[in-house]
Amino acid sequence: MSSGNTGNMNSTEDDQGQQLSQHEIQNVQQHLQQQGYYKNARVDGKWGPRTREAVESFQQAKGLPAHGQLDQQTLNALGVNQGG
Q1: When you count CB atoms within 10 A of the terminal residue's CB, does the N or C end of the chain come out lower?
Q2: What is the pLDDT of residues 53-77, one digit of tens each?
Q3: Angstrom distances, CA of residue 31 to CA of 1, 7, 11, 27, 74
């Protein structure tokens, strides 16, 4: 199965927001910002296109599957503990 990331609106962004609390997304955004991936964007705890792009850039840089979603491997690489 291929995941077409060519601007198609799908439910992954909404799903991502449901999987993590606002605090957890804020934590992810802060870690991404500290490492230079989340630039010119507010740390607001909301999952949106800028956060997804930053996650995808981080994943590419770290040699992870670059799907722009926060899986456990990505959270571990960021140093973020889910649920905390």
Answers
A1: N
A2: 999 999 999 999 999 999 999 999 9
A3: 31, 26, 24, 6, 12
Closest CA to 55 of 68, 36, 42: 68
pLDDT in tens, 1-22: 444 444 433 334 445 555 788 9
Instruction: Give me the domain span that covers residue 73.
Output: 55-84
Residues with Cβ within 8 Å of 16's Cβ and at least 6 positions away in sequence, in order, are: 47, 52, 69, 70
User: 22 in a domain, yes or no?
Assistant: no
In a domain, 74, yes or no: yes
Q: Structure tokens of 69?
A: 């979603």
